[in-house]
């Protein structure tokens, strides 16, 4: 078990900068998830921590010791790869023993570690089999077992569930969470799946274009996104964004007109960086939008028409287009009888709204 | 519909049999001709069965150009085996190094250099090879012959192709497990590459066994000649003895035919493994 600290880590491949000034710290026993869209540099960051890539600049510290330039094998880390990377010509037992034999551990130690890991992962009956005879889930367990036997300071997982089918992925996700609780080891996990990130992480690091967009606990990121990218990336269905124009700025917050109808909404945010007339972006999560049929004389809320309803059984996803042409997605609990073409009114509670400036940076909420 | 289903495989089998016979016929003709007299062969060259099994040609080739046939056979086997082993070892290591560190200075140049040698006509190499071998004192030596025949760009390309098909994660995983680069190669990559190594070895063996021009150039005297060069020596200023030539050709071809028949499953398996993974 160990701590990890990255200070201004950069990685360049030729002229292209894949990681830019990445700084973060991982506490002992913490489960940290790197999340971001494809090509954001999350796997490169993990490989740089592992020592499979050299950092072009910056410092990497494990347990306080700088490990830049230290061989991957000597960093005391173990990695589970997306492709499992099991040695195809070795049995499960030989796969697990490979690293330990190279480290010249006594055979009794090797056997004991393999036995213990096999028990935890329930792969005891697979030890004599070759990887090609195993299912995807079994291979994944073996890959994790191979990491466990090395008793690493930090576990690194590079999208370990992405090759599994949806059902198995959910099952393995739960097993990974249990494994972390049992081993209490420091784990770093890369995924592009924000559900995996939200469910597994103690701390999420959101990356985009090689930069850290925000670091925080899953619900902190969900409730207080630092910018519109994080707000859009975390949460499913994703946050709705519509244009808002600043109409008034005061000590209690700002008033903005939304929806092209001039509806004014009060936001309790720090408007000191804004000016009257500024364009901003309003963000609201689908489950925060209240929706009701447009009744006689009903004038509050945004007038809209339903263009798509997705019945999910446990909930209903309603896509509605406002008169200004904005499409807002609302998620409603249960099976709601709203159908395509229906006229509705959308209520956007100010307390659930997020306001972002023109650059996408969230405006600080006033407590 | 069902008639078509039955006819389809039948037609395919007939076509494959006809194709196989087209390839087998020259070998069959060669063996039949080695038992027929020169006169009979000239009168009726396409006869399918010999008039009699005349072994005179096989006894007449015990000495070719004054050198016993055993010397040619020994040279063929020694030079081919050593050159192929050297070729497989060097091209495997070279291709692996190129695969693992493609951006090291000069590596691209080496790769293109290898490709260039494939495009260069062998005949144009005669004079430079002779001069180089003479300068470094390897003219007429086994070492010179072996070293020259070990230059096999096609083997290098086959290894390159295969190494590219191995997932990089596998090697990264071995590195994380604490394997040195040599251990990655010997304990992870080569065991996986075993079928490909076998295939490459066999192809190298077949290519080297039939070589004659470089041997004619580098070997300074007939006691370093191999069977294909001896075959060339059968064509003298007094004409060609077809029967003896066919007998020697049959002896020259026999070892590689046997070798291929014994190992064809592995050779084809190796090709398929590379193709599927690629």
Outline the structure in words.
Chain A is built from 8 helices and 20 strands. Chain A is an alpha+beta fold. Chain A folds into 2 domains: 4-233, P-loop containing nucleotide triphosphate hydrolases (Rossmann fold); 240-356, OB fold (Dihydrolipoamide Acetyltransferase, E2P). In chain A, strands 6-7-8-3-9-10 form a 6-stranded mixed sheet, with helices on both faces. A 5-stranded antiparallel sheet of chain A has the order 13-12-11-14-20. In chain A, strands 15-19-16-17-18 form a 5-stranded antiparallel sheet, with no helix packed on it. The radius of gyration of chain A is 25 Å and the shape is elongated. In chain B, 74% of the residues lie in helices and 3% in strands. Chain B has 13 helices and 4 strands. Chain B has a two-stranded antiparallel ribbon with strand order 1-2. A two-stranded antiparallel ribbon of chain B has the order 3-4. Chain B is flat and about 70 Å long. The model of chain B is unreliable at 273-278 (pLDDT under 50).
H/E element string of chain A? EEEHEEEHHHEHEHEEHHEEEEEEEEEE
Q: Provide the β-strand percentage band of chain A.
A: 25-35%
- Total of helices of chain B: 13
Major sheet of chain A: 6 strands, mixed
Quaternary form: heterodimer
Any descriptors?
heterodimer; A: 367 residues; alpha+beta; Rossmann fold; five-stranded antiparallel sheet; 8 helices; B: mainly alpha; two-stranded antiparallel sheet; 4 strands; 74% helix; disordered C terminus
What's the short story on this structure?
The complex is a heterodimer of chains A (367) and B (278). Chain A is of the alpha+beta class and 367 residues long. Chain A has helices spanning 42-50, 92-102, 107-121, 136-149, 166-183, 194-200, 218-223, 228-233, and strands at 4-13, 16-26, 31-35, 57-62, 65-66, 77-80, 154-158, 186-191, 203-208, 211-216, 240-250, 253-258, 263-267, 279-284, 290-293, 302-311, 315-322, 327-333, 343-347, 354-356.
């Amino acid at each position: 078990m160990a701590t990890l600290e990255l200070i201004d880590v950069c990685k360049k491949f030729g002229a292209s900068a894949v990681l830019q000034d990445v700084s973060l710290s991982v506490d002992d026993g913490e489960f940290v998830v790197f999340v971001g869209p494809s090509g954001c540099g999350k796997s490169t960051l993990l490989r740089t921590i592992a020592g499979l890539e050299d950092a072009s600049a910056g410092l990497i510290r494990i347990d306080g010791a700088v490990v830049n330039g230290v061989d991957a094998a000597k960093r005391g880390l173990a990695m589970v790869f997306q492709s499992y990377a099991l040695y195809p010509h070795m049995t499960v037992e030989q796969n697990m023993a490979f690293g330990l034999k190279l480290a010249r551990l006594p055979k009794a130690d090797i056997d004991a570690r393999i036995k213990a890991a096999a028990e935890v992962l329930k792969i005891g009956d697979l030890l004599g089999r070759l990887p090609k005879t195993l299912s995807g889930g079994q291979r994944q367990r073996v890959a994790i077992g191979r990491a466990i036997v090395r008793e690493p300071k930090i576990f690194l997982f590079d999208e370990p569930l992405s090759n599994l089918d949806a059902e198995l992925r959910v099952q393995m996700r739960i097993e990974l969470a249990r494994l972390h609780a049992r081993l209490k080891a420091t784990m770093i996990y890369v995924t592009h799946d924000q559900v995996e990130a939200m469910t597994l992480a103690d701390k999420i690091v959101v990356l985009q274009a090689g930069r850290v967009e925000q670091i925080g606990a899953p619900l902190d990121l969900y409730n207080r996104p630092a910018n519109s990218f994080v707000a859009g990336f975390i949460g499913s269905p994703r946050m709705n964004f519509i244009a808002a124009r600043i109409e008034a700025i005061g000590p209690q917050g700002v008033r903005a007109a939304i929806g092209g109808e001039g509806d004014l909404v009060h936001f309790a945010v720090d408007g000191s960086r804004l000016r009257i007339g500024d364009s901003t972006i309003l963000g609201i999560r689908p489950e925060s939008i209240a929706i009701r049929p447009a009744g006689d004389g009903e004038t509050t809320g945004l007038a809209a028409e339903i263009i798509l309803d997705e019945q999910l059984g446990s909930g209903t996803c309603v896509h509605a287009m406002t008169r200004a042409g904005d499409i807002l997605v609302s998620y409603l609990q249960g099976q709601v009888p709203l159908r395509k073409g229906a006229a509705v009114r959308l209520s956007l509670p100010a307390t659930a709204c997020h306001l972002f400036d023109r650059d996408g940076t969230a405006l600080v909420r006033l407590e | 519909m069902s008639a078509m289903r039955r006819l389809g495989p039948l037609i395919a089998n007939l076509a494959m049999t006809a194709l196989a016979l087209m390839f087998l016929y020259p070998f069959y003709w060669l063996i039949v001709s080695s038992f027929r007299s020169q006169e009979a062969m000239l009168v009726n060259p396409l006869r399918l069965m010999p008039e009699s099994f005349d072994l005179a040609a096989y006894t007449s080739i015990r000495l070719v150009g004054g050198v016993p046939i055993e010397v040619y056979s020994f040279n063929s086997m020694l030079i081919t085996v050593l050159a192929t082993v050297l070729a497989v070892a060097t091209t495997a290591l070279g291709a692996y190094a190129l695969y693992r560190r493609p951006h090291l200075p000069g590596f691209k140049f080496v790769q293109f250099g290898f490709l260039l040698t494939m495009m260069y006509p062998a005949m144009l190499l005669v004079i430079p090879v002779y001069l180089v071998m003479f300068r470094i004192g390897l003219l007429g030596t086994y070492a010179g012959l072996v070293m020259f025949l070990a230059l096999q760009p096609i083997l290098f390309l086959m290894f390159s192709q295969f190494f590219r098909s191995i997932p990089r994660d596998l090697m990264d995983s071995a590195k994380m497990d604490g394997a040195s680069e040599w251990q990655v190669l010997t304990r992870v990559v080569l065991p996986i590459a075993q079928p490909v190594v076998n295939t490459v070895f066999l192809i190298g063996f077949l290519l080297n066994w039939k070589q004659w021009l470089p041997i004619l150039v580098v070997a300074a005297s007939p006691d370093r000649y191999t069977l294909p060069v001896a075959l060339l020596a059968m064509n003298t200023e007094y004409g060609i003895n077809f029967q003896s030539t066919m007998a020697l050709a049959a002896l020259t071809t026999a070892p590689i035919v046997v070798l291929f028949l014994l190992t064809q499953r592995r050779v084809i398996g190796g090709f398929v493994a590379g193709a599927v993974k690629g």
